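Morning. Coffee machine broken again, so started the prediction first thing and wrote up yesterday's gels while waiting. Chain of 148 residues, entered below exactly as on the submission form.
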Amino acid sequence: MTSAPDATRISLQVAWLLLLALPIATVTWTITHEEIFREAREYCSDRSKRCRRLIQRKFFYVFTCEYCLSHYVAGLFIILTGFRLLLDDWRGYVLALFALVAVANMYMSLFGRLRVDIKSERLEVAVKEREVEEREVEAHEAEEQSAR
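Came back before lunch.
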């Protein structure tokens, strides 16, 4: 089994950082944005507003905020992989946590922007298709009237 790179292998640590941030971003995005977790997210959102205790509200809020949740997901991945950044002691874990969160959130921002662009393009195509259909209907109606 391959273990996380030690502090002397900076290029390997950077590769781990960039690659490990991908599943962190994916898990975080899926929980906080995708339809499969919509009901759970709505429940957590409601509980984050209605719970009486601050700690309960914050606990449920974590599952609605991609930035907040990414810290916990990154922590879980650090525990699973043993990844440390720059230093081979506990400080390496702290650095890894915040670096992974930063990179994962950059990935999520890029993905969010990409989704907006794709949706915008789809809407533009739909509008153009509707315009073409309307012109075809108008042309067909004009042909029918001229034939009469």
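DSSP finds five helices and no strands in the chain. Going to sketch it on the whiteboard this afternoon.
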